[in-house]
Amino acid sequence: MQKIAADYDVTKDAIYSNNKTITYDVVFEANENYIKAVFDHNGTILSSEEYYEYVRIPNALISQLVKEFPGWSFNKSNCTIIYSNEGDAKFQYTVKLKKGNKSKLITN
Fold this sequence. Notes:
By secondary structure, the chain is mainly beta. It folds into two domains: 1-52, no CATH class; 54-108, no CATH class. The chain contains two helices and six strands. It has a six-stranded antiparallel beta sheet with strand order 1-2-3-4-5-6. The model has no long low-confidence stretch (mean pLDDT 93).
């Protein structure tokens, strides 16, 4: 989906205007995953919010959670990425852990 958003050309869309003050909110969706991107009049992505379900979480986070929650198993994970062209992307992982009939949501 990131490639689709990066390759999207807002200037080819029927709603495009040459007005330099206009921005375009475009949503790309696949199942429960999405990218909400804001494009400027040149087609440059100004900012975006991405959400992905059932992602593989980074090994460092897996190791941390295994140490902090021994005996708990990984049940579900998702990732939100916030991007702005003014800085680095921010990644936030949410992991659902299970142990018997108990569950916890951990956000990192």
